[in-house]
Design goal:
It holds the Pfam family Acetyltransf_1. The protein is α+β, with helices and mostly antiparallel strands. It has helices at about 10-25, 35-40, 90-105, 120-125, 165-170, 215-220, 225-240, and strands at about 5, 45-50, 55-65, 70-80, 110-115, 130-135, 155-160, 180-185, 185-190, 195-200, 205-210, 245-255, 255-265.
């Protein structure tokens, strides 16, 4: 059974350092030190741990954000120990974060993720009901560990905590949809050999963008192709967002995966 609760005391917050190393293969230099999380928690932020069998197996860290008169929570990190990934820990952490934020008057949580990590895209958009409409090129400048070899681009996710779509997804997670609308790009090949060809300029309200199904395997097989995909999808997302679209789901057709984008009314 997974239990999620706020970290209590410095010793529990310190556990997040080992979890960062385990989840992302961070070096000692790259981890967020526990002192930063302690200060954040003391100043109104959230540091929560997921526990199973008496061990900390995951964590989430967020803090207040402010822009244009609106205050929300930005979730900077959520990590799960590799041996506990795919076992509901991440969903339990996000459910806890949502409840915690709503109780304190927040209606929005944001975070960033790598758009080529399709499991994360499925989780964030498909399972949680969040959406993305902002793209950051090489946001963190990370060059080692999980992020070695290609620029650390990110999508900014908006999770509107009390939106009907979010409530529905948390009650019943639907299967991945089939891609709908017009293609945003042409691709060639298949499997790890899938390669970008050229961008299109669709006009439909719903468009889709194919991406590699397994970035990490592609980086091992062909780092140059993985880097090409990064630059290609960067251009595609920037064009789509500039033309009023936002990413709302991750679609599937067999082993092929596609971002589903919709034009904002």
């Amino acid at each position: 059974m997974i239990e999620v609760r706020e970290a209590s005391g410095i010793e529990e917050v310190m556990l997040t350092e080992d979890l960062q190393i385990a989840a992302w293969n961070f070096s000692e230099r790259e981890i967020a030190p526990h002192s930063a999380l302690v200060a954040s928690q003391h100043s109104g932020g959230l540091v929560a741990l997921a526990w199973a069998g008496g061990e900390a197996v995951g964590f989430v860290w967020g803090f207040p954000a402010f822009e244009g008169g609106r205050i929300w929570q930005h979730s900077h990190q959520m990590g799960v120990r590799p041996d506990w990934q795919g076992k509901g820990v991440a969903l339990a952490l996000k459910r806890f974060q949502r409840r915690w934020a709503l109780e304190r008057g927040y209606d929005l949580v944001t975070w960033t993720f790598d758009p080529l990590l399709t499991k994360n895209a499925r989780f964030n958009l498909g399972k949680l009901g969040a959406w993305a409409g902002t793209y950051y090129s090489d946001f963190y400048g990370l060059r080692t560990g999980l992020y070695a070899g290609i620029p650390a681009d990110r999508l900014l996710v908006s999770w509107e905590l009390d939106h009907p779509r979010v409530r529905e997804r948390l009650e019943r997670i639907p299967p991945p949809p089939e891609p709908e609308g017009e293609p945003l790009a042409l691709t060639r090949g298949e499997g790890l050999g899938l390669a970008p060809e050229r961008l299109l300029t669709p006009s439909a309200d719903r468009v889709y963008l194919e991406v590699p199904y397994d970035l990490e395997a592609l980086k091992v097989a062909d780092l140059e192709l993985a880097a090409a995909w990064r630059l290609f999808t960067r251009e595609a997302f920037l064009w789509a967002f500039a033309h009023g679209y936002r990413a709302v789901d991750l679609a599937r057709r067999g082993r092929r995966v596609y971002y589903q984008l919709e034009r904002v009314p």
